[in-house]
Amino acid sequence: MEVEIACPKCDWQPQAGSRWQCTCGHSWNTFDTGGTCPRCLHRWHDTQCLSCAGWSPHLDWYRNLDQWVAEQLVAELQPVAR
Fold this sequence. Notes:
Blueprint lengths: L3 E2 L14 E2 L5 E2 L17 E3 L6 E3 L4 E2 L1 H12 L6
């Protein structure tokens, strides 16, 4: 299952060129770094939607994340052929 990124409030999906600005002035795509500014290393726990302006916990933007993690764990726990 593919992890998708979308605003939990309005379903807007950011594109690769979408940019957020940190309080240090740096502009970047927050989903490239999991919400951490690459310049000052501030970790944003909440992310503001560029469409509806609502704030949501950064992790809530990732859809199907639980299913993806479960699939990775199942694959990792498969017995190793000897």
